[in-house]
């Protein structure tokens, strides 16, 4: 074989071997670990715990009774519900409403709410205005104006 042929074969073999021995990339997540564990650690479980108590804790937390909460939830559920994706579970309508009510009741910052519900402040800042809009649209029909 000529030197040129050996060089071409050696180069091709190197390229093939280098391509086969690539390291697998470490799996990347779109969210941090505390938010991935939201379904296990808090969120809906926290709301369920509040509702199982005597009712005063739930009322203090959301500033409304559980009956009023569920009435409002059923009124706006279809408009604030999002679908799960292959990458992550959607934040439930219950959690969206509870976070929004807690924000309206206390004026807590989104940073404070993110640790309470394990939902990132960026996501909270996107859905709170949407939920508020739907609350206004739903409850405006119950407000009677004297003119």
UniProtKB/TrEMBL annotation:
Residues 42-136 form the DUF8040 domain. Keywords: Membrane, Transmembrane, Transmembrane helix. The chain crosses the membrane at residues 6-21. InterPro entries: DUF8040. This is DUF8040 domain-containing protein. It comes from Acanthoscelides obtectus (Bean weevil).
């Amino acid at each position: 074989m000529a030197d040129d042929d050996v060089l071409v074969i050696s180069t091709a073999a190197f390229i093939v071997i280098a391509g086969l021995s690539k390291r697998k990339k470490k799996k990347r997540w779109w969210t941090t670990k505390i938010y991935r564990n939201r379904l296990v650690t808090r969120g809906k479980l926290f709301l369920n715990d509040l509702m199982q108590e005597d009712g005063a804790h739930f009322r203090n937390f959301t500033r409304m009774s559980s009956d009023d909460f569920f009435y409002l939830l059923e009124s706006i559920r279809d408009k604030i519900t999002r679908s799960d994706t292959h990458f992550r579970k959607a934040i439930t309508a219950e959690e969206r409403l509870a976070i929004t009510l807690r924000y309206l009741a206390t004026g807590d910052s989104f940073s404070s709410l993110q640790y309470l519900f394990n939902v990132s402040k960026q996501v909270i800042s996107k859905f709170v205005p949407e939920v508020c809009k739907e609350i206004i649209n739903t409850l405006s029909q119950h407000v009677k104006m004297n003119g």
